[in-house]
Amino acid sequence: MKLVTYERKGKPRAGAFVDGDRKIVDLAEAHKEAFGKSYPAFASVQAMIEAGDAALDRAYETVKKGRKGAFARKDVRLLAPVPVPIQMRDCLCFETHLKQSFAAARRVRANASPDPEAAMKEFERTGVLSIPKIFYEQPIYYKANRFSVIGTDQDVLWPSYSKLMDFELEFGFYVRKKGVDIARDKARDYIYGYTIFNDFSARDAQTAEMGGQLGPAKGKDFDFGNAMGPCLVTADEMKDPYNLTMIARVNGEEWGRGNSSSMHWKFEDLIAHVSQSETIHPGEFFGSGTVGNGCGLEHMKFLKHGDVVELEVEGIGILRNRVLTRAN
């Protein structure tokens, strides 16, 4: 099932895509119509996740019986599937992206110095902005700002302190149930579903602060910086998350393409690692990190005011956002 959160009269509502994602069934209203009573778990997508398999089964029954009230997707505003996730971690799962991004980041930092070529030689000699050894030893991640989440077709206001605007072609999953010390071979059962994630990045701020070996911070943390959507595809509908074509377009032009099959670390690895002596909870979000070729930095191309970024992940849909500089 493809679950969505949409806005009506200023309030978020839980729904499900039907008819090829062109229409939405409001789950709470459809349930009342079909069964003559309310169902508390349909108050939000987060409440559905917390209610577990029983709520998802009821959602399938509801959509089957209550589709008469379905309305056009184009007539409403979609929010992120979970508008304010209870926790967000973004991980580094794609080696190709790291190799290409670190090489480009060295160039960005060098270009900001008085002698770019001398700076590049010094970075290469000292190993500045190279892939850390720890990447190959265990999954690494940072905790993202859960309060800066937006949905598809919402504008991203670029931070005033940045001149280099970029996007990140990612997808990720929501945790299905509470757990701790989860074995890797049991980890898939903890995935509730998947969505597309655009971890917008202020590249100049990010490359500057990475020298501090803590973060990222203002390179990632700004209002409207975490775009997610358009829907949450439940795990039962996504049989193989490790063979998905991923495409990034800017103003309709393809800038990058990759496949989830190239993940160095799988989602099961992330769950097993993070849950060591740490309880994970229903509704937490884990990002995959950027697929190889999935950002402008890797191509030394950056966004400008008014650009429309579309991220497409096979089986999920298209996440679309326009970038606006605050000066305009």
The fraction of residues in strands falls at: 25-35%
CATH second-level architecture of the largest domain: Alpha-Beta Complex
Radius of gyration, rounded?
20 Å
CATH topology of the largest domain: Fumarylacetoacetate hydrolase, domain 2
What is the CATH level 1 assignment of the largest domain?
Alpha Beta
| Chain-averaged pLDDT | 94
> What is the ordering of alpha helices and beta strands?
EEEHHHEEEHHEEEEEEEHEEEHEEE
Integer count of domains: 2
Name the shape in a single word.
globular
Structural class: alpha+beta
Q: What's the story with the biggest beta sheet?
A: 12 strands, mixed
What is the count of DSSP helices, taking H or I runs of 4+ residues? Answer: 7
CATH superfamily annotation of the largest domain:
Fumarylacetoacetase-like, C-terminal domain
Structural summary, described in words:
With 328 residues, the protein is of the alpha+beta class. The protein has two domains: 2-78, no CATH class; 88-325, Fumarylacetoacetase-like, C-terminal domain (Fumarylacetoacetate hydrolase, domain 2), CATH 3.90.850. The chain contains seven helices and 19 strands. It has helices at 27-35, 45-51, 53-65, 95-111, 116-126, 203-209, 267-274; strands spanning 2-8, 11-18, 23-26, 71-72, 77-78, 88-91, 141-143, 149-150, 156-158, 165-166, 169-175, 191-199, 201-202, 226-234, 245-250, 253-259, 285-287, 308-313, 317-325. The strands form three sheets. Strands 1, 2, 3, 4, 5, 6, 7, 8, 11, 12, 14 and 17 form a twelve-stranded mixed β-sheet that branches. Strands 9-19-18-15-16 form a five-stranded mixed β-sheet, with no helix packed on it. Helix 4 crosses helix 6 (203-209). The longest helix is centred in the first third of the chain and has 17 residues, at 95-111. The relative contact order is 0.19. The mean pLDDT is 94.
